[in-house]
Amino acid sequence: MCGIVGLHLRDPELYPQLGQLLESMLCGVVERGPDSAGVAVYGDTRRVPDGHAAVSVLLPAGTTPEALKDALAGLAPVVTPAGDTTLVAAPTGVDALVAAVRTAFPAATVIGSGRDLAVYKGTGHPRALAETYDLAGARGWQGLAHTRMATESAVTPEGCHPFSVGPDQCLVHNGSFSNHATIRRDLVREGVTFDSANDSEVGARFVASRLAQGEDLEKALLALRETFDGFYTLLVTSADGFAVVRDPIACKPAVIAETDAWVAMASEFRALASLPGIDAARLYEPEPGKVYAWTR
Amino acid sequence: MDAVAPETVTFDLAETGGVRALNAELHRPSAKSYAVENPAGAHAIAAGIDADIAVEVRGHAGYYCAGMNDGGTVTVHGNAGTGVAENMMSGSVRVRGDASQSAGATAHGGLLVVEGSASMRCGISMKGVDIVVGGSVGSMSAFMAQAGRLVICGDAGDGLGDSIYEARLYVRGRVGSLGADCVEKEMRDEHRTELAELLAEAGLHHDPAEFRRYGSGRSLYHFTSEHSASY
Amino acid sequence: MTSPAARGLRESATFDRATIAGIQHAARTGVYDIRGWGAKRAVPHFDDLLFLGASMSRYPLEGYRERCDTDVVLGDRHARFPLHLQTPVTIAGMSFGALSAQAKEALGRGASEVGTSTTTGDGGMTDEERGQSKHLVYQYLPSRYGMNPAHLRAADAIEVVLGQGAKPGGGGMLLGQKISDRVAEMRTLPPGIDQRSACRHPDWTGPDDLAIKIGELREITDWEKPVYVKVGATRTYYDVKLAVAAGADVVVVDGMQGGTAATQEVFIEHVGIPTLAAIPQAVQALQELGLHRKVQLIVSGGIRTGADVAKAMALGADAVAIGTAALVALGDNDPQYAAEYEAIGSAAGYYDDFQDGRDPAGITTQDPELAARLDPVEGGRRLANYLRVLTMEAQTIARACGKAHVLHLEPEDLVALTIEAAAMARVPLAGTSWIPGVTR
């Protein structure tokens, strides 16, 4: 149970303000999820320079970002710690960087990877975490954030959203799936591995496995709708876009706002209230069971 | 922005005190007329009014705006979040924009007007309120509606009036589908008359002849296994 | 005639006579069995726990002389006016509709006499119960029948009901026999119909939205009243954490033995967990949040004696609520009506057809003639007597364990008679230091 915000910028003039805008949005959903918070930023070249791959990592206890940097020295990485998360960027391929991190620290949890994406997760008060992540300083073309009120799994960095389990993909969830254990078992049988006991991770792994089979985001989310029981508002982002879907009963809230300059989605309007041009935005609620998608 | 009469007391929610100070004042009003600036989606704005006072909310409201209103006249110059005018007893609430889920939920009396559209579960479990929606309503509207009247000038989503009791529904546009035990009923003169009155009260100008009427088939009033699919 | 057993006939353990009767009923009517009361099956319960009275290592308190308090404060986390009760035994929510107006009044009279609270139910607040209840908790339910802001303000506390131990996840029912004109009017329903209540609230779902709903209720009542959240016992550890996260001042956990006025038998017997298993989960959740004894825990479902009260409190509850036992105290299942119980196909001590409205004791009915059998003053006196006995019994045990307040009882004062009870209650098996699942 949680608060969700996402912002997809259409106007490049706003790219330098992405982090500031996202932070203001995050503050509007703090009360929905006071346990922990996660953030994903797309296109911040100071965090993920052009030609680099990036991996976000939760390091196991007793290891340090410096040790990771030393272990990856051959790849000339830039290693930036931010609370529980350590961001590693290096001029190499995504798969190569993920493999190198896993080889160096098998007990580390990879919480995000891509050519354009920086993911941060941690436990604590969302406002304090936004500062830890220097969210206000982020720039880029798209981002999302999530505040968590844990339901049936532990309050840990691994259990936070977003779940980023495929390259440049993220999923955040408000609600609760009620048949996730069975779907998890099915995915495990297919060889999928999990990082947390969180029901939302099952949704993310399900979508990632569909995307890996070549489906587009919309098709994958329609498949999710047919497979998952329970209540959900989902925001899913990828290397080129942004999608929102609610379950057919649609009890969990969602508001979408659109202007020529941006598309924004949040659990509640109060998270959108301070966006520039909000007074003239087209405001609407996504209909139950329908997939809304935007691409760059 | 409308002109503010001098006797109107203005609360700016961006300043300290917020909703709590506003509601404390509205529960023991020292004026007849209030304006609320910078609502910014805050929750429970003007909830629990128990007096004949007017409140103008200048912007978008969050959840439960004018919740349990009993006698107040509340206008939202913007959109309203979940459960606007929920459990209203009397008075009137007008939303100039759209309303989110569960508008007028369980309300016993008074008039709720949504000039725009209302999303899912509009009038859920309504118990005597009159609701007039200028636009459309989402799915499962008037679910378990017990009493009162719901007027929809646009379209209704799926499952309209599911498990309805004695509420009366009027729809001008298309109905996605009717819920269990909700049936179309004959539009007689008395219905055209009450509909015309409701539209006039809401300030909307539609011909009552363009509406269809729906209500309970009363087949779920006594539990039998033949209806098990509807339970 | 000799009994079947004496004639050497063998009853099936799987298809016993009650099961056979159930199949026959289903085949005959095509409708599942709806009844009142709570779970009747045997489950690990307080009877499987024993107290370690003081002896040499600990000193008992002298009964009647040395102080052992029983008062409790409920809801002092956010509310301006928390409840201060003289006994930790409260009366659980039961609706006017399920019960007669006289029964509701009697509950109010009995509870007020001993300084404890009573609770409305799914049907609104009656003048009789408000008038006779010193401390009245107003339930806020999915149906919102009779929900009224004036009553919200007239209440001493608000209980947001998510579920009931008899049917977690299910909505309420009230069959047509009990929808009298007055009940129908209070619920805005046509008289005589079979009423169904929703299983979810109409305008919020989940703890994040419950937090906003609780905020609204506090705004409407000017932050004066404690807000309780009641859940049926299932995933209690998580539910209690989330209730607290949503802002509850008090959490009420109702175990599967908790009663109902009318619910599907399959629900009553097969959904939910025993009260004994729920308490340690709830207490663990509160302790992990650092809020045990700060957000109070009320436990219900199968409380019958002062020993049950003391055991629930030793496991960590701040108070208990009684429902079925209170009805019995008023006169439910009284042997004086034995012939009448037989005449409607039941027996004194077995009667659970609360849905039917033909209660010979005049409690679970809306029939004016039957309801008139219960004198609210006399019923109130009987309930007050019973509440005093429960309180004194709990106090007796607390003194024997050397406690100056019943709230000072602790899990270490308890041992279990069975491995099941030891595992559920997380106390050692008697005579050992073994807590299954906790110690080796």
TrEMBL record, chain A:
Gene3D superfamilies assigned to the protein according to its UniProt record, in alphabetical order: Glutamine Phosphoribosylpyrophosphate, subunit 1, domain 1 (3.60.20.10)
Xref: PROSITE patterns: GATASE_TYPE_2
Domain Glutamine amidotransferase type-2 positions: 2-296
Entry keyword annotation includes Transferase: yes
Keywords, ordered alphabetically: Glutamine amidotransferase, Transferase
InterPro entries on file: GATase_2_dom, Ntn_hydrolases_N
Domain of life of the native organism: Bacteria
Coiled-coil intervals, chain numbering: none
Keyword Iron tagged: no
PANTHER family according to UniProt: AMIDOPHOSPHORIBOSYLTRANSFERASE (PTHR11907)
Protein name stated in the entry: Glutamine amidotransferase
The organism of origin for this protein: Actinomycetospora rhizophila
UniProtKB/TrEMBL annotation, chain B:
Signal peptide: none
Name the record gives this protein: Glutamate synthase
Source organism, top-level taxon: Bacteria
Family annotation (CDD domains): GXGXG (cd00504)
Organism: Actinomycetospora rhizophila
From TrEMBL, chain C:
Keyword Oxidoreductase: yes
Protein family according to the UniProt entry: Belongs to the glutamate synthase family.
Keyword Oxidoreductase: yes
UniProt xrefs under InterPro entries: Aldolase_TIM, GltB, GltB_archl_type, Glu_synthdom
Residue ranges of every copy of the Glutamate synthase domain listed in the record: 78-331, 360-403
PANTHER family recorded: ARCHAEAL-TYPE GLUTAMATE SYNTHASE [NADPH] (PTHR43819)
GO molecular function annotation: oxidoreductase activity
Name of protein: FMN-binding glutamate synthase family protein
The organism of origin for this protein: Actinomycetospora rhizophila
Keywords on record: Oxidoreductase
EC nos: 1.4.-.-
